[in-house]
Design goal:
Distance between the termini: 29 Å
CATH superfamily of the largest domain: Response regulator
Strand order of the largest sheet: 7-8-12-11-10-9-13-14
Shape: globular
Low-confidence stretches: none
């Protein structure tokens, strides 16, 4: 860490004694700020993903005010700015399609403005990785302040979790075991405060991994949105960003290969979302770090699941916080982590969590008595996914992890929705549901539709899980024996496109294999005769996305955004 204070980037705007300096200062004075607050002080951008369309982040205006207090108290000058916000439940066709747009918005907003450092306010699923990607590319001092999980839902004195219990209750309704009135009542009970999902969905996973990467203050990620300590962390983060600017500590110094491996290991230990693999790959790509899928699987094999949280386990994020939160989880496994990794606290990861205690051993387990003996997410290979696929084994029926069954094929999500409840659909509990054209290009945008609903006629017979395969994603709150992120996707001519009704498919998780049981010549013949599909967009961002998005195994970022750099203009003194 640097000892000498660096030259403040903002002074290329505000410290000039010429016409441009006059203009820059004059426009700030138009907002009522005196000259002394932006001449010589660190200017801190507060990157706010607040939006009334994003209920997970709807409280971030208040969080921003707490950050500002911290920045002012540390001698900095805070300036809040908005970016696009990604509302997971509301955006169509998928927030994943717009993650890269938000990352570009974050990067260019940082790069274009007179900012010496930035505080990133996030929460909902894709807002956290988008901000980390943008900050990694801009590479000025940065710190993350998540909005925190919402309070746990309650129904008839039982805790209920966002997403996870939606799928469960919907199955009960479709099977005729729950009334419409009960379903409606639960709707009002589930989401009862601001904040992101309180299960270990993608939002809770990615905010936890932001902390595991070293990009938050210790203990920041899991504080509930409604808890006053959320504002305290925001205040202290505002103070800390001024120190990070003075120390010239940048994301590229924090989010190293060791930090990324820490995040992968923590993801496996907490039973994190399958989406984390795509996002960590994208963040690594922005930093110019090669992070092969094989490394994820190596770490998964070595890492037991020690967090008893839904959808893999019993509890919710509020319980995780009371039990000691992520610091206690990481302290439990610190000898398996890169403890010397530097963090935005100014201390190493090992120093940060050294005194963290576990307050509830039913929530945070020990490694010798884990929820599952190896990591929650497994990377598959085989002739059906030559570039990889994933399955969250910690949330699947163990009996289906070694399974051979007959394919029931849906050409796209519309086909699936049209035929799901067809009484003539030939399907039973041994079948393998296959969804094509759910990937980055085919869907488009790789929506969370991979957790295909089980037909009601099977639910009524008591079937609770069935093997499902797709090139789509699923919500981190989902559960079941669901193989996702099949690469290459069907729309790119991947082997998934060749699957036909009645084909046998074999899943062998122990040996990390997913195979279509037809001979190689027949597979090649089918792939050569695939029909043409028109692209979903011919203009705008949709066209940009389709032309440039990488496959799931490469993080679904745009190829032209990988690696460091920012263009000649980014460093020019105007």
């Amino acid at each position: 860490m640097a000892n000498d204070k660096p030259k403040l980037r903002s002074q290329d705007w505000f410290g000039r004694e010429d016409k441009l300096g006059f203009i820059h200062r004059s426009w700030m004075k138009a907002e009522g700020f005196p000259d002394k607050v932006f001449r010589g002080r660190p200017v801190v951008g507060i990157c706010n993903s607040w939006s009334e369309l994003t209920s997970c982040n709807a409280h971030l205006r208040q969080v921003a005010e707490a950050v500002k207090r911290g920045v002012w108290s540390a001698g900095g000058f805070p300036l809040e700015f908005p970016t696009i916000s990604l509302a997971e439940p509301l955006m169509r066709p998928s927030t994943m399609m717009f993650r890269n747009l938000m990352a570009m918005d974050v990067e260019e907003s940082i790069r274009a403005h007179p900012l010496d450092g930035v505080v990133l306010l996030c929460g909902c699923d894709k807002t956290t990785p988008a901000q980390l990607m943008g900050a990694a590319s801009a590479d000025i001092p940065s710190i993350v302040v998540p909005g925190g999980p919402m309070l746990r839902g309650m129904y008839k004195n039982e805790p209920i979790g966002s997403g996870t219990d939606v799928w469960r209750f919907d199955d009960e309704r479709r099977a005729g075991r729950m009334t419409a009135g009960e379903f409606c009542e639960i709707e009002a009970c589930m989401s009862r405060s601001a904040g992101h999902c309180m299960t270990m969905g993608t939002a809770s996973t990615m905010t936890s991994l932001a902390e595991a990467l070293g990009m938050t203050l210790t203990g920041c990620a899991n504080v509930p949105a409604a808890d006053s300590r959320r504002m305290e962390f925001a205040h202290r983060s505002g103070e800390r960003i001024v120190e990070l600017i003075n120390e010239d500590v940048r994301p590229s110094q924090v989010m190293t290969r060791e930090a990324l491996e820490n995040a992968i290991r923590v993801d496996m230990a907490i039973g994190g979302s399958t989406n984390a693999i795509i996002h960590l790959k994208a963040i690594a790509g922005r930093l110019g770090i090669d992070l092969p899928l094989t490394r994820f699987d190596e770490i998964s094999r070595e890492t037991p699941v020690i967090l008893n949280v839904s959808p893999s386990g019993k509890y919710l994020m509020e319980d995780v916080f009371y039990a000691g939160g992520l610091p206690a989880v990481m302290n439990e496994m610190i000898d398996a982590l890169h403890g010397g990794a530097i963090t935005v606290t100014g201390k190493t990861m090992a120093e940060n969590v050294a005194n963290a205690e576990v307050h509830n051993r039913d929530v945070i387990l020990t490694r010798d008595k884990p929820l599952q003996t190896s990591g929650g997410t497994v990377i598959l290979g085989g002739n059906l996914c030559p570039n990889g696929a994933v399955i969250k084994t910690s949330a699947a029926d163990p009996k289906l992890l070694q399974h051979t069954g007959r394919a029931v094929v849906f050409e796209d999500h519309a086909d699936f929705m049209n035929r799901l409840e067809d009484p003539d659909l030939e399907i039973d509990e041994t079948s393998v549901m296959v969804l094509k054209n759910g990937g980055p290009k085919g869907a488009p945008g790789m929506p969370e539709v991979g957790n295909l609903s089980i037909p009601a006629k099977l639910l009524k017979r008591g079937v609770k899980d069935i093997l499902r395969i797709s090139d789509a994603r699923m919500s981190g709150t989902s559960y079941g024996a669901v193989v996702l992120h099949v690469a290459p996707e069907a729309a790119m001519g991947g082997p998934l496109a060749a699957v036909q009704n009645g084909d046998e498919i074999r899943l062998d998780v122990e040996n990390r294999k997913l195979d279509l049981l037809i001979d190689e010549h027949e597979l090649s013949r089918r792939l050569r005769s695939l029909p043409h599909r028109d692209p979903a967009y011919d203009r705008g961002y949709g066209r940009l996305f389709l032309d440039n998005v990488l496959q799931a195994d490469e993080g679904c970022d745009f190829g032209f955004l990988k690696g460091k750099g920012g263009g000649r203009w980014a460093t020019l003194p105007f």
